[in-house]
Design brief:
- Chain C: It comes from Acetobacter syzygii.
- Chain C: InterPro entries: THDP-binding, Transketo_C/PFOR_II, Transketolase-like_Pyr-bd, Transketolase_C.
- Chain C: This is Alpha-ketoacid dehydrogenase subunit beta.
- Chain C: GO terms for molecular function: oxidoreductase activity.
- The complex is a heterotrimer of chains A (373), B (321) and C (343).
- Chain A has 373 residues and is α/β, with parallel strands linked by helices.
- Chain A has ten helices and 16 strands.
- Chain A folds into two domains: 109 residues, OB fold (Dihydrolipoamide Acetyltransferase, E2P) (Beta Barrel); 257 residues, Alpha/Beta hydrolase fold, catalytic domain (Rossmann fold).
- In chain A, the strands form three sheets. Chain A has an eight-stranded mixed beta sheet with strand order 9-10-12-11-13-14-15-16, with helices on both faces. In chain A, strands 1-8-6-3 form a four-stranded antiparallel beta sheet, with helices on one face. In chain A, strands 5-4-2-7 form a four-stranded antiparallel beta sheet.
- In chain A, helix 2 packs across helix 3, helix 4 runs antiparallel to helix 5 and helix 5 packs across helix 6.
- Chain A is globular and about 65 Å long.
- About 2% of the residues of chain A have low confidence.
- Chain B has 321 residues and is an alpha/beta fold.
- Chain B has one domain: Rossmann fold (3-Layer(aba) Sandwich), CATH 3.40.50.970.
- Chain B is globular and about 50 Å long.
- Chain B starts with a helix and ends in a 17-residue tail after the last helix.
- Chain C is 35% helix and 18% strand.
- In chain C, strands 3-2-4-5-7-6-12 form a seven-stranded mixed beta sheet, sandwiched between helices.
- Chain C starts with a strand and ends in an 8-residue tail after the last helix.
- The chains are: A alpha/beta (373), B alpha/beta (321), C alpha/beta (343).
């Protein structure tokens, strides 16, 4: 009978996730579930995410209760055909739990590579690598105030046949908290130096927000290093920016004041988890973090507007480039992508805010997969 | 011993300033215009001045409840002190410390102290600062025979030896801890106490500026050279009570009168320097006149100075809160 | 970032601040240990519970000072050194020993700035262990933070976890006022993720470790963990709690406490210090005075009895607040119904 029973287990969102909290069940026992249907909300240390069912069937049991925190791979519930008896379900659950408790610790850890610290000139950068293979590698560049975990739902999916690199820009995450003049060109030089250090002659470049502007600066100065360009809600293509976000991100020092600022990032405000807010507060407490953010804001957004116009860099690029933008972005405007040559595909995602890579990870991953094929 | 001309003049001026400051306070206190407690240093001037003559602003001192003399000897201005004692906003502590808490850290004056035996541990710390920061400074704790019986003092003697600190423990032994004689309250001797910690000991007549100057010079040089702490036992006497208003019923009739007649450090100083023509009497007369004017002015200014304001009540509890 | 114990977090904060600022020095009994011993080693202990281990070896005899067992002299020395250019971190070992050096803290360090008219800075940290649960009996187990909180001029920190301990200790060392930093001795082996880099957590900003609608639990130090446990169990029964960790008892984040009580209308305070004039009574008075209208039930305090800390395990367990007692206090305020309406 066990082939008629499908375990629903704690998913792994991103490389660093080891456990998650089931914040709510969105379906009740007895409900008929389709594959891809959001059946529960899972809160991780970074973000709350809807969990899409991996299979079709009837939800016969909710093993995990709301509010429970469980390791990756732990049993959340069971899908099974209505014909399966309760006794068989009980036996299945019992066996699963006993197998899991004996082997879970190992399996949960084996594919989890810790970020490493890489010295680039005077800087130490925190770098997360995933995947290997002969295909041209891919590098992710996060935006203002972000870190490599911004790519938690993307990096693994895109690491099939190539090395992928996510890293913390200087002044961010676990990297050295000095940013020089804080300009995109300076970050681009650091990105180039990191590629050299890692032996990447060329890479597909994915840049988000300010990371988009950095990607364009990289293209401008080191065109040979850029195999393709995927810009997600990028800076550098217009002048306007929501300074309430930038200023609020810098000045908010408590959960209560920061949370509304982070709401600018997403269309679905429930995605901003308590832990995500707490993690950003913790980042901002690190020596040098706040000064770094202030320097970047002053350099990149003087007078409340974006300083650098990098549209010409993009229009003169002969390689493949695309832009992915949330229609409901509240930080940078999707209209900045207007007026570009037809060769550059612009993908606009409905009901999506400033972080499509988190909010619409599947669509973003599909678009990037296509361009790097 | 040879003492430079300018040091002699400065020291005389300093002793005269202390004397006039205290004598004037004695008079003014009786009018009821000065709030709180005042403990006068009259008769002990040579001790503070003879020790501080060897110190610079880098060096640190800690004082006692009987602290006016140490403050003046270390260079704290009499205007600010007088205003403080009158509880005025212009006082050196803005009227929030009073007589027992006059301090000026910029001059290395770590404060008079309302707690008997409060200073010696602080001086271990100041000496540690001088040692760690390697600034060549020494730290000096003035404390009385009363404080010599506090555990804090005895612990400090030990700690200073253990850490080999550039500290000088100046025991100003005026024979009384409040109304109780040292002959009753102090077991053994200060000399034996120093010896118990293996600490070098110097003593001197604290009513003789030259004796203090010489002994303090040797003691401070020892500490400053990195040879560890020393004790300087200064034997002296106070001319007034423990505090103003003390009728001194514990002192024999005539004790103070004979001190004033025979052990006045200022008279002795004048006699000694003029006998051997080190200084002209007129130079000392000029200082006397100038100090008198200075104290007059300080009292007048203090009486006319503004009082602290209500907003001062909650100010300066913390650097930030 | 890696998992670090409470002990390691404190050691790392000390190390990083000593690396950053040469004026930061350490002193205390046996903080290196071994000097003058027949083994001829130093750094033999690194503190009685090993918290300062390795710092003498790394920074040497001019930065790390073992003291005689002589609290009055060396705490006083720390005060004097702080007033004259150093930034000492003095370890008092057990906070109960404050009886031997209270003058140096209460009459000297705390009052310099005020009585000297704002001209003194005394950037001093006194670290000490507190708390019951170690069978250390009456003279080694007290939670004396209310004693220090009572004294104007002192700041008082009671960290509740390794992350909190590192950030708050770095803040304490950088602070220009005298700070009493109290470490619960039972928590030294508690572990959590702690950033490798230096960071600081501001004083006077409470941390909400849980957010809920029904009851506010204000807890101090180790009691925060018990409050969290209780809140997690209660949540399964549909009772949602806000847990407030004030982090510092002086300054106290009254605003956050009041806001939370305004939101929930019910208050349970958990304090392991003796029950008279402690933080629980302080917070209760604050709320009774300033948020009376918000209260739907009487304030409940989960505190020890008015006794010294007992030795025997069975008695010590009875003495200390725990999560079960917190849970039952929360249930009782939830069950409370006003007997009659106002006339």
């Amino acid at each position: 009978m066990t082939d008629l029973i499908t375990p629903i287990t704690m998913p792994k969102f991103g490389l660093a996730m080891t456990e998650g909290k089931i914040t709510s069940w969105n379906v009740s026992p007895g409900a008929q579930i389709d594959v891809g249907q959001e059946i529960a909300d899972i809160e991780t240390t970074k973000i709350t995410n809807g969990y899409e069912s991996p299979a079709t069937g009837t939800l016969r049991r909710q093993v995990a209760t709301e509010g429970e925190t469980l390791p990756v791979g732990a049993l959340l519930g069971v899908l099974a055909d209505p014909t399966v008896s309760d006794a068989d379900l009980d036996a299945f659950i019992e066996k699963f739990q006993s197998d899991f408790s004996s082997g879970s610790a190992d399996t949960a850890q084996t594919d989890h590579a810790e970020p490493t610290l890489v010295t680039v000139g005077e800087l130490t950068l925190r770098v997360q690598e995933a995947g290997q293979g002969e295909d041209t590698p891919l590098i992710f560049i996060h935006g203002f105030g972000g870190d490599l975990s911004n790519w938690m739902l993307n990096q693994n999916d895109l690491a099939g046949s190539r090395k992928t690199i996510a890293f913390d820009l200087p002044g961010h995450g676990g990297s050295t908290k000095t940013v020089g003049d804080g300009k995109p060109a300076t970050f681009a030089a650091t990105t180039s130096a990191l590629m050299d250090k890692l032996g990447l002659a060329q890479a597909h470049v994915v840049g988000h927000s300010l990371g988009g502007a950095i990607a364009l600066e990289l293209l401008k100065t080191f065109p040979q290093k850029v195999a393709s360009l995927s810009l997600i809600a990028p800076a550098g293509l217009g002048r306007a920016i929501n300074m309430d976000f930038i200023d609020g991100f810098i000045s908010a020092d408590r959960r209560k004041t920061l949370e509304p600022v982070l709401h600018y990032l997403v269309h679905d405000k429930t995605l901003i988890s308590r832990r995500m807010v707490e993690d950003i507060i913790r980042f901002k407490r690190l020596d040098g973090a706040l000064q770094s953010l202030q320097t970047i804001a002053t350099s990149c957004f003087p007078d409340g507007k974006q300083a650098d116009d990098l549209k010409p860099v993009l229009t003169s690029f002969s390689g493949s480039a695309q832009i992915i933008w949330g229609a409901d972005d509240e930080v940078l405007s999707p209209t900045d992508a207007k007026g570009l040559p037809d060769s550059i595909e612009v993908i606009t995602l409905e009901q999506t805010g400033h972080m499509p890579q988190l909010e619409k990870a599947a669509e973003v991953n599909a678009a990037i997969s296509k361009i790097i094929k | 011993m040879q003492i430079a001309h300018d040091i002699l003049l400065r020291s005389y001026r300093s002793m005269r300033t202390i004397r006039d400051f205290e004598e004037r306070l004695h008079v003014e206190f009786a009018t009821g215009e000065i709030p709180g407690f005042v403990h006068l240093y009259c008769g002990e001037e040579a001790s503070a001045v003879g020790v501080c003559a060897h110190l610079t602003d880098t060096d640190t001192i800690a004082s006692t409840h009987r602290g006016h003399g140490h403050c003046i000897a270390k260079g704290v201005g009499v205007d600010g002190m007088m205003a403080e004692i009158y509880g005025r906003k212009t006082g050196v502590c803005h009227g929030k410390g009073g007589s027992m808490h006059i301090a000026d850290l910029s001059l290395g004056m770590l404060g008079a102290n309302g707690i008997v035996g409060g200073g010696p541990p602080l001086i271990c710390g100041a000496a540690l600062s001088h040692k760690v920061l390697n600034d060549g400074g020494v730290a000096v704790a003035f404390y009385g025979d009363g404080a010599s019986n506090e555990g804090t003092t005895l612990e400090s003697l030990n700690l200073a030896m253990v850490w080999q600190l550039p500290a000088v423990f100046v025991c100003e032994d005026n024979g009384y801890g409040e109304a109780t004689g040292a002959s009753y309250a102090c077991a053994g001797t200060q000399k034996a106490r120093a010896a118990g910690f293996g600490m070098p000991y110097f003593d001197c007549d604290g009513t003789d500026f030259f004796a203090v100057y010489e002994a303090a010079g040797a003691a401070i040089a020892h500490a400053r050279a990195g040879n560890g702490p020393v004790m300087l036992h200064v034997q002296l006497a106070r001319w007034y009570g423990h505090f103003e208003g003390d009728a001194m019923t514990y002192r024999a009739n005539g004790e103070v009168a004979s001190l004033r007649a025979e052990h006045d450090c200022l008279k002795n100083f004048r006699q000694r320097v003029t006998e051997v023509s080190l200084l002209e009497p007129s130079a000392l007369d000029d200082i006397d006149a100038s100090v008198k004017d200075e104290i007059d002015a300080a009292v007048t200014a203090a009486k006319n100075a503004p009082l602290p304001e209500p907003a001062d009540l909650e100010a300066d509890v913390y650097v930030s809160y | 970032m890696s998992k670090k114990s409470f002990r390691q977090a404190i050691n790392e904060a000390l190390r990083q601040e000593m690396q950053r600022d040469p004026r930061v020095i350490l002193m205390g009994e046996d903080i290196a240990g071994g000097q003058g011993g027949t083994a001829g080693v130093v750094d033999a202990w690194g503190g009685v519970l090993g918290v300062t281990k390795g710092l003498y070896t790394e920074f040497g005899a001019n930065r790390v000072f073992d003291t005689p067992i002589s609290e009055a002299s060396y705490i006083g020395a720390a005060v004097g050194a702080a007033a004259t250019g150093l930034r000492p971190v003095a370890e008092l070992m057990f906070v109960d020993f404050v009886g031997c050096c209270l003058d140096q803290i209460m009459n000297q360090a705390a009052k310099f700035r005020y009585m000297f008219g704002g001209k003194a800075r005394t950037p001093l940290v006194i670290r000490a262990m507190y708390g019951a649960g170690f069978n250390a009996a009456a003279q080694h187990s007290q939670a004396l933070y209310p004693l220090f909180t009572h004294i104007p001029g002192l700041k008082v920190v009671v960290p509740s976890s390794p992350y909190e301990a590192k950030g708050l200790l770095i803040e304490a060392i950088r602070d220009d006022d005298p700070v009493i930093f109290l470490e619960n001795k039972v928590m030294y082996d508690d572990e959590e993720e702690v950033p490798d880099e230096p960071y600081s957590i501001p004083f006077g900003e409470a941390n909400l470790t849980r957010e809920g609608d029904d009851v506010t639990i204000v807890a101090f130090g180790r009691m925060v963990n018990f409050a969290n446990e209780a809140a997690d169990r209660l949540e399964k029964d549909g009772i949602s709690c806000t847990v407030v960790d004030p982090r510092t008892t002086s300054p106290l984040d009254s605003a956050t406490i009041l806001e939370c009580v305004e939101d929930t209308g019910r208050l349970v305070i958990v304090d392991e210090s003796s029950p008279r004039c402690n933080m629980a009574t302080d917070v209760a008075a604050l709320v009774a005075e300033q948020a009376f209208d918000a209260l739907k039930a009487p304030i409940r305090q989960v505190v020890p009895p008015h006794t010294p800390v007992p030795f025997a395990t069975v008695l010590e367990k009875l003495y200390l607040p725990d999560s079960a007692r917190i849970e039952s206090a929360v249930r009782s305020v939830m069950a409370y119904k006003k007997a009659k309406q106002d006339a």
